[in-house]
Amino acid sequence: MSWLKRSPFASQDAAARHMVDLLAAEGQTRGMPLTEGERSILAGEGPVSDDLAAKARRLITEILEREGASNADPRGFGGAMEWASDGAWSNIVELTYTAVDNRCPPPRLHGWSKAKDVFALIGCGLLVVLVMSAIVTAMVFIFHLK
Predict the structure, then answer these.
(1) Rg of the chain on CA atoms, in Å
(2) How far is it, in rounded angstroms, from Cα 76 to Cα 22?
(3) pLDDT at 1
């Protein structure tokens, strides 16, 4: 089973703590250090102050831009995110998702692309109705229902 990956972390909490450690190291580099209290808030669940959230999102965006699209390192920030986001979410995982969503908004479709999507949606809806009709017709013939 080569498609099954083994986590490099002992637990989901260990992955979240590793993400916080990487974020704290980035904060030290950028001149925005995290205190122990901020680190424990980010590693746990619960309310996060707006100042801490903004600071963390800025650092997360810088880390993700530096790592780029290649997630080759399983113990990097992106790799840790993969393992920390299974099940319960810590604050660092939630802030990472919001940072990614703010960084890459979904594209708006215009013109022919939008028309193609609308036609595909209508076609899929009609296909579902036809398949359901075929199933009902087959059931009628099989069980001789009237």
Answers:
(1) 23
(2) 8
(3) 42
Q: Which two three-digit tokens encode residue 53?
A: 């959230």
Task: Dump pLDDT digits (tens) for 67-79.
Answer: 876 666 777 887 7
Structure tokens at 28: 């030290």
Average pLDDT for 33-43: 89
Q: Which amino acid is at 73?
A: D
- Whole-angstrom distance, CA of residue 56 vs CA of residue 130: 50
pTM for the model = 0.65
Contact (CB, 8 A) for 73 and 9: no
Query: Can you spell out the DSSP letters for 21-75?
Result: HHHHHHHHHHT-PPPHHHHHHHHS-S---HHHHHHHHHHHHHHHHHH-S----TT
CA 81 to chain centre: 8
Contact 71, 63 (CB under 8 A): no
Angstrom distance (rounded) from CA 83 to CA 74: 9
